[in-house]
Design goal:
- By secondary structure, this protein is α+β, with helices and mostly antiparallel strands.
- The protein has one domain (20-127): Ferric Hydroxamate Uptake Protein, Chain A, domain 1, CATH 2.170.130.30.
- The chain is built from 2 helices and 8 strands.
- A hairpin with a 2-residue loop joins strand 6 and strand 7 (104-105).
- The radius of gyration is 17 Å and the shape is globular.
Length: 129
């Protein structure tokens, strides 16, 4: 009987940790979503941010999630450019990854866009219009 209890306990402990939001230094969170342009999307409902964090910081925090989405970037600071998400590269003249915050396409890069609590960041793989 104790062996069954211990086995059940070991099964439940990871569930407690994985259901907690990924929090940075405080309890402010944002939502992070990825739309692949074919009716498929992935969502992170609660990514922790600190005051002054950027979209890039949120992407790095998302890397700590057990179901993280890998991305590749180049550049430094405010000039970081993300050119691949989830093994899907930008096409240049075709579809590219662009991000929106609260429904508006960003006019600055991921390293410059400062987030606020409850922001909703959506990465869309689409043709620039």
């Amino acid at each position: 009987m104790p062996n069954r209890f211990h086995a059940l306990l070991w099964l439940l402990i990871p569930a407690v940790f994985y259901t907690q939001p990924l929090l940075a230094d405080n309890t402010q969170t944002i939502a992070l979503e990825f739309e692949y342009g074919n009716g498929f999307s992935k969502h992170f409902k609660s990514i922790g941010i600190s005051q002054g964090d950027t979209v890039l910081d949120a992407m790095k925090t998302m890397q700590k999630h057990p179901h993280k989405i890998l991305f590749k970037s180049r550049g430094n600071g405010e000039f970081v450019f993300i050119y691949e998400i989830d093994l899907i590269k930008n096409q240049g003249n075709g579809k590219n990854w662009m991000f929106y915050v609260n429904g508006r396409r960003a006019k600055v890069g991921v390293g410059a866009f400062k987030l606020k609590a409850n922001d909703h960041v959506v990465w869309k793989y689409e043709v620039f219009k």
